Every structure is written in C-alpha cells, then in structure tokens.
Amino acid sequence: MGRAVARNRRTLTGLGLLAALPIGFLALFFIWPVAAIVGLGFADGGVGEALAEGETWRLAAFTVTQAAASTVLAVLAGLPVAYVLARLRLPGVAAVRSLLLVPFVLPTVVVGLAFRALWPDGGLTSIVLANTFFNIAVVARTVGGLWAHLDRGGEEAARVLGASAFTAFRTVTLPAIMPAVGSAAAVVFLFCSTSFGVVLILGGGTLRTLETEIYLRTVNLFDLPGAAALSLVQLAAVIAALAVGARARRRRETALRLRPSTRTARRPAGGEWWVVAAAGGVLVLLAVPIAGLVLRSLSGVDGWSLAGYRAFTGTGEGVPAWDAALNSLRTAFDATVLALIVGVLASVVIVSLRRSARVAGEVLDGALMLPLGVSAVTVGFGYLVTLDDLPGDLRTSPLLVPLAQALVIIPLVIRMVLPVLRSVDERLRQAAATLGAGPLRVWREVDLPLTLRSLVAAAGFGYVVALGEFGATSFLARPEAPTLPVLIAELAGRPGQLNSQLAYASCVLLMVVTGAVVLVIDRLRAGQSAVGEF
To answer: Three-state SS string across 389-450, please?
Structure first.
C-alpha cells in the first residue's frame, strides 16, 4: 500500500511538472492580457454603463441571430453530405471528404472577398452564407464520423415493422446521431459568433457583431470600458457554447463506444438518390464562391488579365505581396511549433488526469478551449497593455504574432491529438512500464508511434490555420511586416483596379496553398476515425 501511495504521488508530481508549461502559457498569454483589459474597463467605471446601453444588446442580438441562422443552415446543408460520406459507397467520396476541409481552413479574408465578388453590397444574407460555407465541413465530418459507426439494424427493424424511411430516420437514426449534431452545432455557433474577417468585409460598416465592435471601440475610439463590457458579454456566450459542446462531445464519445465500429457503407438505393442529389447540390454551391474568386482574380477593366499575378512581387506602394507571403510562412511555422509543444503536453496531461483526477483534466481541457471564442482584438490589445512589464519588450518583437496565432491553434491541436491518445490501449502502457520503461520511454515506444499520424496532421492543420489567421494578426502585425491576409485586406480597401486584382490574385494563391496542405493532411489521416477531429 505504501509503495502504491508513493507511486501515485510521484505520478501526480510528474503530471504537475508537465502541466506547468501549458498552464503557464495560458495564464501568461491569455488570462493575464484578457484580465488586464477587463480590469481597465472596470477601473474606469464604464462597464455598467456600457452594459446598460441598448446598442450593446442590439449588437449581442445581431451576433446571436446571424450565428444561429448560420448554424441552422450549416446543419441542414451538412446532414445530407454527412449521410453520403458515412453510409453510401460512391466513386469520389474519399476526394469529397478531403476537399470539404478546404473551405473550413480558408482565411476569413479570402472567403469574405469571395462572397463580396458575388454580393458587392454585402449584407446579412452574404454574412450568413459565408459563415455557412466555412462550417459545412464541421457538420459533415463530425456527424458523419459517428453515423458511419451506427448499425443499420435498428433502421431496418423499424422498416420491417411498417415505418416509412422518414419515420425510421426520425425515431431511430436521429436520436442516435443527436450527440454529434449537438457537438457540431455548438462548435459552428462558436465560430460564427466570433467571426471577424467575414463580418468586417461583408458588413459594410453598418452590420456589426460583438467581435467587430470590440475592434472598432478599441482601435478607433479607444473606448476601453465599452470594449471590456462587450468582451464580458462575448466571454459569457463563449463559455456557454463550450459547455454545451463539451457535454455533447462526451455524449458522442459514449454513443460511439456503445455501438459497433463496423463499415455500413453501401450502394445507394431508392430514396437515397435524393440524398445524393441534395449533397451534390451543396457541393456545387460550395464551389460557386471559389470559382467566383478565381474569375475575379483574372478580370480586368478590358477583359481577362493576369496583371494581379504579375504584380505579386511589388504593389507599387507599401510592402510587396511576395514579402508578406514569406512573412506569413515564417510566422505560421513559429506558431505551429509553439502550439505543438503546448498542445501535445496538454493532451498528455489531460489523458493522464482522466485516470487519476478526471475533474481536473476536464477543467484543463475546457480552459485551453477558451481562446477559440474570446475576441482576438481583446487578447491583442491586452498584449500591448501587459507585455511591456516582462523582461524585454515583446510588443515590438516578431514573436508577438506567432504567440497570438498559437493561442488559436492550440485548441485545434488538442482536439486532433487527444482522441487518439485516449484510444491507446492502457494495457500497452502498463506492459511497457512493467518491463522497466520510464514514463518518457513509454511515450516514445508506445504513444508516439500510435499517434504520429495525428501529430503530423495536427502540425499541418495548425500551419494552414495560422497561415490564414486574420483576427489577432490584423491588430498585432507591424506595418512593415504584415502577413498576406492582412495585406489582402489592406489592398481590398485601397482604390485602384490593380490593387483589387492583386488582392484577389493573392487570395487565389493563398487558397491553393491551403488546399494543397489540407489534401496532404487528409491523406495522412486516412484510415483514422473522423470522430472528434474538430
């Protein structure tokens, strides 16, 4: 008994040391800056006044309304695609599964300009459709991952007893996939409620969400109490969405464990062809903005033109687009390395705590998800307020942007690595430990080989997300060293046909790079379950 207690103490001590880096990173580069901004707002006594303003709640209402509309539309559009991916065996399904990820990781500024090419005047409809475009993949792959594991026996039994296809779906299948639908909807709502680049470009200055209003009040008006109040409202909504998503995710994992992991795909029959047609229509609609973006990049005043692509090495004013692209590549690399270190350590700690201190593991998991939903502007301005208190002035350091981007992709790394680590048979670790392997060697010999694919995929996925990150980067990037998404937004706001063509050409090049990386990632992940990847 005494040896077991001593071993448990050593284990908890080791976990504490491992947890020090992710907890310290979260505290230093997220909690402290956000708390500083909120504290400044309270110190001026304006938070209560801002919360009492009708404009604040009108912004909150619009934020929730557009996010809810986008979520409903994404779920409705994603379900037939999820069915095709999970239940039907058709040529090209594997390619569709990979290509679906491309819209999800495209930079918001790229998607904003793509929809502005279709709707020059912007508006609510274009905002909702752009957010839906982003998030159909979340629904299709999250729901499809669970749907593929459902035994068809329940549906077939209902049909034998006289139920129609729709009744069998409503009474048997839908309840079984609802945990995945709820999980996907919570994530989509979170992404849509904090959408920045899309609303900034398509809102036309008149339609504003909490996210864009925080930016306006912080940067243009220097209204810290107002920005702090909006940040508090947004943070409350984010915590609620994360709680719903975590609960739905746990139900989804439980549902998956209770059902056989059998292949249920078959050739379409009967009414399933209508589902195939609906899914095909969704895919065509996804292709329209991308095609419009490409055509716009090739259009000039006098017809077809490659002037935008030829101007890529120099804009005539400001930073050349080529230099901004190289800066994007370097910054994304730094952010990805940092996010991998913190994210993998956090995943190891969460998995280990699940065996010895489950509540602590869930708290850490939830805390590390918070940066996904808090305003990037709030975090960025908090950096400028707090980081000058540290040795050296990080506010002028080139590491500032990678630090902010790492905060965004750490949750994504954890969501991709954690399910795989949880699926590793604990008996393999115990056998290695019995043979004398220490914790580090157990990780190297057991966990690493089994999770290597997910680690590589997480690195690639994090890289493309950092490459296109716009919210925090637009606030923190130095004028002489912008990233490509920041420069694209600047070019789109400048007068002149050449600037517009260069902006669209840069969007196309960024989209091609992003798509190529995503296709490679999905090939690496072939054979692994899609459940939990978002």
So the answer is: HCCCCHHHCCCHHHHHHHHHHHHHHHHHHHHHHHHCCHHHHHHHHHCCCCHHHHHHHHHHHH
Instruction: Delimit the domains of the chain by residue range.
Output: 9-34+305-528, 43-253
Q: Name the residue among 129, 144, 112 with its Cα closest to residue 72.
A: 129
> How much of the chain exceeds pLDDT 70, in percent?
80
* CATH number assigned to the domain covering 9-34+305-528: 1.10.3720.10
pLDDT band at residue 5 under the 50/70/90 scheme = very low
| Mean predicted confidence (pLDDT) in 182-202 | 84
The stretch 374-384 carries a mean pLDDT of: 75
What's the maximum distance between 2 C-alpha atoms anywhere in the chain? 85
303 DSSP β-pair partners: 300
Say if residue 26 is exposed, middle or buried (CB neighbours under 10 Å; 0-12, 13-18, 19+). Answer: buried
Handedness of CA 326, 331, 334, 339 (dihedral sign): negative
Alpha-carbon dihedral 96, 458, 402, 31, rounded to 10 degrees: 110
Q: Taking all residues of the chain, what is their mean pLDDT, rounded to a whole number? A: 78
Indicate the pLDDT class of residue 13, thresholds 50, 70 and 90. Answer: low
Helix, strand or coil for residue 149?
Answer: coil
* R_g (Cα) of the chain, nearest Å: 24
- Residue 73, token pair as written in the block: 């539309």
- Cβ–Cβ under 8 Å, residues 77 and 143: no
Can you read off the two tokens belonging to residue 232?
């508090």
- What dotted CATH number matches 43-253? 1.10.3720.10
Same fold, 9-34+305-528 and 43-253: yes
And the tokens for 119?
């709707």
Cross-strand bridge partners of residue 318: none
Residue 52 has pLDDT above 90, yes or no: no
Name the residue with higher pLDDT: 132 or 423.
132
| Phi-psi region at 329: left, alpha or beta (left = phi > 0; alpha = psi -120 to 50) | alpha
Tokens read off for 87: 């239940």
Alpha helices in 263-388 (DSSP H): 272-297, 307-310, 321-356, 358-369, 376-386
Cα–Cα distance, 80 to 499 (Å, whole number): 40
Closest by Cα among 332, 367, 359, 358 to 25: 367
Please tell me whether the overall predicted TM-score, pTM, comes out greater than 0.85 for this model.
no
pLDDT band at residue 129 using 50, 70 and 90 as cut-offs: very high
Q: Which pLDDT score, from 0 to 100, does residue 162 have?
A: 77
Sign of CA dihedral 29, 30, 31, 33: positive
Residue 234 CA to residue 230 CA, distance in Å, equals 6
